[in-house]
UniProtKB/TrEMBL annotation:
Domain of life: Bacteria
Domain Aminotransferase class V positions: 31-331
Family that this chain belongs to: Belongs to the class-V pyridoxal-phosphate-dependent aminotransferase family.
Keywords on record: Aminotransferase, Pyridoxal phosphate, Transferase
Reported cofactor(s): pyridoxal 5'-phosphate
Entry annotated with the keyword Transcription regulation: no
Gene source species: Paracoccus maritimus
GO molecular function terms noted in the UniProt entry: transaminase activity
Keyword Nucleus listed: no
Pfam families: Aminotran_5
PROSITE patterns according to UniProt: AA_TRANSFER_CLASS_5
Protein name, UniProt field: Aminotransferase class V-fold PLP-dependent enzyme
Lineage: Bacteria, Pseudomonadati, Pseudomonadota, Alphaproteobacteria, Rhodobacterales
Length: 396
């Protein structure tokens, strides 16, 4: 029997019924004009979510990992120098991909729980007088640790250093969840996927290219075929793909963008922050702490919660699934067994979040952790009640 409980993993997220229906559609001729009526509105919708007027959007049948590969193979050549920080599993994986493609990656190691070190980047970029560094990588939201980094600060570091490097941002678990400003922040390539803020099943790599990134495509020499944006652009111009497209997912993306824009992006961001704050209030009431080391780094899409030393956090995840049919996220890499993760992104409400908080309390109590049942729920309830009351006062 399939559980009707919401999931609290940091993606794939819960899928609204309207999007499930949008994805579930009859087969069409993807070489007919009908497909263009699905494709182009979806691309335009993504541009609005990214807050770009200058950029071009490309969507591939893949995941965020394919989006990373799209970014580097379309703009770089073997031996090119890349600057990145390793502060979590997903920044680590992007670095690993670059190294496998023969790129020279200068890695700034950070504690898992810290953000992207814009100040250190500025020092390195200023010292790079010959402008050997071609790209700066930044993970906006490190999904493994629940850390949000300041992308605007990274852009300021590039500008202060007077450096021409491209800025690539992994926004897989941030875009469509909280504010992302591709044009204003000078992001040259933004990478995301369908299964998080866009509330769809996995299967789409969504990538935005700035004009500067588009220009780099013409001189890049890394091999690419499936992820060649030049082929994709030619397909778009003819209302198609260079190969068979995932029509149902693209139809879902079109509807998802409409849903986000109808709710209002600022309202979407406020909803994510409100729900996340409720989870954080619960964590405080439990006497636990987050992996993110400072409040300015707290993610509004996922909270990585540290457990007491000598306790295996994986027991919380397995017990929740086996006994209550509720999915939480495990710790990854350096924080494996040290944290469990509550995803609070995509299709989620205050009431749904409370069910996840209550389940986490039951699990921890079952496993003998010193948790008072109802403590986290009460703290989150009070926050949500105050948020609703504040909104009512503001509307009056």
């Amino acid at each position: 029997m399939t559980s009707q409980n919401p999931v609290f993993i940091p993606g794939p997220t819960n899928i609204p019924e309207v999007l499930r229906k949008a994805v579930d559609m009859p087969t069409i001729d993807h070489r007919s004009p009908v497909f263009g009526k699905i494709l182009h509105p979806a691309l335009e919708g993504v541009k609005k979510v990214l807050k770009t007027t200058d950029g071009q959007v490309f969507v591939f049948p893949s995941t965020g990992t394919g989006g990373w590969e799209t970014a580097i193979t379309n703009t770089l050549s073997a031996g090119d120098k890349v600057l990145a920080t390793r502060n979590g599993m997903f920044s680590h994986r992007w670095i690993d991909m670059c190294q496998r493609h023969g790129l020279d990656v200068q890695v700034v190691a950070q504690e898992w729980g810290e953000g992207v070190p814009a100040d250190k980047f500025e020092e390195i970029l200023t010292a790079d007088r010959n402008h050997e560094i071609k790209v700066v990588l930044a993970t906006h939201n490190e999904t493994a640790t629940g850390v949000r980094s300041d992308i605007a600060a990274v852009r300021r570091a590039l500008n202060a250093a007077g450096h021409p490097a491209l800025l690539f941002v992994d926004g897989v678990s941030s875009i469509a969840c909280y504010d992302f400003r591709m044009d204003e922040w000078g992001v040259d390539i933004a990478v995301t996927g369908s299964q998080k803020g866009f509330m769809l099943p996995p299967g789409l790599a969504i990538v935005g290219f700035s004009p500067k990134a588009m220009a780099a495509v013409e001189t890049a020499k890394l091999p690419r075929t499936f992820f060649d944006i030049r082929d994709m652009a030619k397909g778009y111009a003819a209302n198609g793909f260079p190969y068979t497209p995932p029509v149902g997912l693209l139809n879902g993306l079109n509807v998802a963008c409409d849903m986000l824009l109808d709710e209002g992006l600022e309202n979407v961001f406020a909803r994510h922050h409100r729900i996340a704050e409720g989870v954080r209030k619960a964590v405080g009431a439990w006497g636990l702490s987050l992996c993110a080391v400072r409040p300015d780094l707290y993610s509004d899409s996922v909270s990585a919660i540290r457990v007491p030393e000598c306790f295996d956090a994986n027991k919380i995840v397995s017990h929740a699934l086996n006994n209550y049919g509720v999915a939480f996220g495990t710790g990854l890499g350096d924080v494996a067994g040290k944290v469990f993760r509550i995803g609070h992104l995509g299709s989620l409400t205050d009431v749904m979040a409370l069910s996840g908080i209550a389940t986490a309390e039951m699990v921890m109590a079952d496993l003998g952790l010193p948790i008072t049942l109802g403590s986290g729920v009460a703290a989150a309830q009070e926050h949500y009640r105050q948020s609703v009351a504040g909104a009512e006062r503001a509307a009056a």
